[in-house]
UniProtKB/TrEMBL annotation:
GO terms for cellular component: plasma membrane. InterPro entries: Bulb-type_lectin_dom, Pan_app, Prot_kinase_dom, Protein_kinase_ATP_BS, S_locus_glycoprot_dom, Ser/Thr_kinase_AS, SRK-like_kinase. This is Receptor-like serine/threonine-protein kinase. It is found in: Cell membrane. It is a single-pass type I membrane protein. Belongs to the protein kinase superfamily. Ser/Thr protein kinase family. Residues 511-793 form the Protein kinase domain. ATP binds at residue 540. It holds the Pfam family PAN_2. The chain crosses the membrane at residues 457-479.
Length: 843
């Protein structure tokens, strides 16, 4: 006879079944909603939702060092270092994410509740049909959409319409002509605080098709220039993946730009930087776990208005910190300064006595003025039209307790009150002036003591010299020792900065120019040595007609340029008509002595050649793209590539084209240029750009691969010379790229993938049309394997000068017409090098 189950057993069974059902239901709901927030699924604590393929993540995050503040944000899901791209509650963080919640509210909006269940952020949409059908979905492009759950095309709100500091692909950045509202970028306040900072990037609200950079929403510090149908007039070097995929829309109701990012193995982002106020394009480098800067506008950080705050001075001539407090001032908030927020600037170390003109007490310490020459004068001066002398200008400032500084330039007196904004150090610039900064007397006493000490020292020296005058041999000994000591000091100084030598010092260092290393287009080079230092190379410039001031200015410009693949300028001499440059000595000589020499000791293996090619490209790219001003070398050839003891390449003479001046450079390149390396535009007489160096580099790269001159003497039977690039193009067209290789290289030691990349990019570099040539930055990326490159067309000049047949499959034509490209399956080339591509698609 069967027994009926007891009431308690039945109840327990029912509860167990009910619990398991709820668990399975919640698990199923979570598993099917990894990218969605619905009325039944909210976010709290460390819960997140992730876009389809994991590109972006939405959830609570806290910036490292923020002191326990949490924000709802979107960050990159495949980047190992937390990098937010959008923040919801920028101004109102929460302190307890476990008690806070991001959810769909009863009215259908997406809201953020803090630990007290108060709404601190909302999408704030009024026209939502039903809260039960509303969902929030994060897409793989980083866009968070609030939309109808049954109709994905019905979007009520999206984060793309409300960007923070990052412009993501697919997002608009423009201006609504009807509502007068814009989508704009606003920088973070500092490194750990995403609240709106003082820098803004937006479309011109007046209707002009240009973008503006604003400081504190009140001052335009840089503009992109008007759109000309292809690019903005002031932004001519936009990265190709941002410019080529841009979509420009100018409707009756709105005007904006958006862009799409092609397939790529790189992760990049465009962000308005909180520290510098620049728009920056950064690429994620997984090896170094960091974002690498590849492009920025405006180029100079000192262009940004008041970037260093009140009484802060900006300088483009320092390697590390570009902001410093002026004399007599200190950082007002060290914590904010270290986090990249310098809006508070600097404060006085010692308060002003403000004794004015009426206090004649002997015990009174009157304020004084510190002279600051060669500076960009601060903004918003007050002009005193009735003051007609510098002394009168100083008295006028001293009589006003709020006056901080004055300047007198011969045509007027200018005074500044309270904080000084937008100061910048400038050297030999036409718009530089002299500022007299008002300081407390105690801040000036140290300088006065130094002046008195110098005067006393001069008096002592005069007395000593008078005593020693009767003993000429003793004087000579003293002078000799002093010269030796000075040379030792200068030798040490060359390790840290540019040194000015006298002609006699360089005569002594080179033993009266006895060991000649060679001769170039600008003069002869001699070997020398400094006391306790390595060997040096001294170049005597010939035919230079510049004045001393101009020469020193341009030399100081080149002297500040330092790169591992550029020969370092250690010093110079400008004495009368004598002009000399002092470089570091390269023990392995020039590249041509190793490439075109048959001695076994000069043999370069493939690995060394490839590293030399990459090093040369990096050095030239630095001159073109990373210096304050683009420097065009104008004479890239193996003779100007020097090798150190470990065969690391360094480009030499990289500043001489700039040093010689525009007129001399034109004469040099047309009449004395190196045959075989000149780009076609030199011959046609059109304006020269950095692409002329790219052409020369392509020729050098072919010589590195082949070990042969691009112009080489043939045998007596052939009678004449042979143009090697034509021969190389013929071999590559036949599919025999290996036939281009140097015969001294064994096939087993050559990396054919590297060789293929090198051959392709070399042929791209020597294209007749400079717009078809890549930039040197793109050349570096191709050689490093970061991006792939399409097979290049044979330059038409080679086709016209040879019997190479017109290519059908292996090469393709370079066209500037996109419709022709689509019809003929050709490659469009542009100034930024759209011939390069990623491993899967054309960038």
């Amino acid at each position: 006879m069967a027994m009926a189950p007891s009431s308690s057993s039945a109840t327990s069974f029912f509860l167990l079944f009910y619990t398991l059902s709820l668990f399975l239901l919640s698990f199923t709901s979570a598993a099917t909603s990894t990218d969605t927030i619905s009325a039944q699924h909210s976010l709290t604590g460390n819960h997140t939702i992730t876009s389809g393929v994991g590109t972006f993540v939405l959830g609570f995050f806290t910036p490292p060092g923020s002191g326990g503040n949490y924000y709802i944000g979107i960050w990159y899901g495949k980047v190992s270092v937390l990098t937010p791209a959008w923040v919801a509650n920028r101004v109102t963080p929460v302190t307890d994410p476990t008690m806070s919640e991001l959810k769909i509210s009863n009215d259908g909006n997406l809201v953020l509740l803090d630990q007290f269940k108060s709404i601190i952020w909302s999408t704030n949409v009024t026209a939502i049909s039903s809260s039960n059908s509303t969902v929030a979905v994060i897409l793989d492009n980083g866009n968070l959409q609030l939309r109808d759950g049954s109709n994905s095309s019905l979007v009520f709100w999206q984060s793309f319409d409300h960007p923070t500091d990052t412009w993501l692909p697919g997002a608009k950045l423009g201006f609504n002509k009807i509502t007068k509202r814009s989508q704009h970028l606003t920088s973070w306040k500092n490194k750990v605080d995403p609240s709106p900072g003082i820098f803004t990037f937006e479309m011109d609200p007046t209707g002009s098709f240009q973008y503006l950079f604003l400081w504190n929403l009140s001052r335009i510090y840089w503009a992109s220039g008007l759109w000309n149908g292809h690019e903005f007039s002031s932004v001519t070097e936009t990265p190709s993946n941002y410019r080529d995929d841009m979509q420009v829309v100018n409707h009756t109701d709105e005007i904006y730009i958006t862009y799409t990012e092609g397939a790529s193995n790189l992760t990049s982002r465009l962000v308005l930087d909180y520290d510098s106020g620049q728009n920056q394009v950064l690429v994620w480098m997984e090896i170094s776990k960091s974002w690498m800067l590849v492009w920025s506008r405006p180029r100079s950080k000192c262009t940004v208005y008041a970037v260093c705050g009140p009484f802060g001075s900006c300088s483009d001539f320092t390697i590390t910190a570009f902001c410093n407090c002026v004399k007599g001032f200190r950082i007002k908030s060290q914590t904010d300064w270290d986090l990249g927020d310098r809006s508070q600037g600097c404060e006085r170390k010692t308060g002003l006595q403000c004794s004015g003109l009426n206090n004649d007490s002997a015990d009174s310490e009157k304020d004084g003025f510190f002279e600051m020459p060669n500076v960009r004068l601060p903004d918003n001066p007050n002009t005193l039209a009735t003051v007609a002398s510098r002394e009168g200008c100083e008295l006028a400032c001293l009589s006003n307790c709020s006056c901080s500084a004055y300047s007198y330039n011969g045509s007027g007196c200018f005074v500044w009150h309270e904080g000084l904004l937008n100061l910048q150090e400038q050297y030999n610039q036409s718009d530089a002036g002299t500022l007299y900064l008002r300081l407390a007397a105690s801040e000036l006493q140290y300088s006065e003591r130094n002046k008195k000490r110098v005067v006393r020292l001069v008096i002592i020296i005069v007395i000593v010299l008078a005593i020693l005058f009767s003993s000429v041999p003793a004087i000579l000994i003293v002078v000799k020792k002093r010269e030796s000591r000075r040379m030792i000091e200068k030798a040490k100084a060359t390790q840290s900065h540019l040194v000015s030598f006298t002609y006699s010092e360089l005569q002594q260092a080179t033993r009266k120019f006895s060991t000649k290393l060679g001769r170039g287009g600008f003069g002869s080079v001699f070997k020398g040595s400094l006391p306790g230092s390595n060997d040096i190379a001294v170049k005597k410039l010939e035919g230079l007609c510049q004045g001393e001031k101009q020469f020193r200015t341009e030399v100081s410009t080149v002297g500040r340029i330092q790169h591992v693949n550029l020969v370092r300028l250690l010093g110079f001499c400008s004495q009368g008509s004598k002009r000399l440059l002092v470089y570091e000595f390269m023990s392995n000589g020039s590249l041509d002595s190793h490439l075109f020499h048959n001695a076994p000791s000069s043999h370069l293996n493939w690995k060394t050649r490839y590293q030399i090619a990459i090093g040369i490209a990096r050095g030239i790219a630095y001159l073109h793209e990373q210096c304050r001003e683009c420097i065009i070398h104008c004479d890239i050839k193996p003779e100007n590539i020097l090798l150190d003891a470990s065969f690391k390449p360094k480009v030499a003479d990289f500043g001489l084209a700039k040093l010689m001046g525009r007129d001399f450079s034109r004469v040099l390149t047309t009449l004395r240029g190196t045959k075989g390396y000149l780009a076609p535009e030199w011959i046609t007489g059109v304006a020269i750009t950095a692409k002329a160096d790219v052409y020369s580099y392509g020729m050098v790269l072919l010589e590195i691969i082949s070990g042969r001159r691009n112009l080489e003497q043939t045998t007596a039977e052939e009678d004449g010379t042979r143009y090697f690039p034509t021969f190389a193009a013929s071999k590559m067209n036949e599919g025999d790229a290996a036939g281009v290789l140097d015969s001294k290289l064994g096939p087993e030691e050559v990396n054919m993938e590297e060789m293929d990349r090198a051959c392709k990019i070399a042929c791209w570099c020597i294209q007749d049309d400079e717009r078809c040539r890549p930039t040197m930055g793109q050349v570096v990326q191709v050689l490093e394997g970061i991006i792939d490159v399409h097979p290049p067309p044979i330059p038409r000049s080679l086709l016209l000068s040879s019997d190479v047949p017109q290519p059908i499959n292996f090469f393709f034509e370079c066209s500037s017409n996109r419709s022709t490209q689509a019809a003929n399956t050709t490659s469009n080339c542009s100034e930024t090098g759209s011939h390069t591509s990623s491993s899967s698609d054309n960038k």
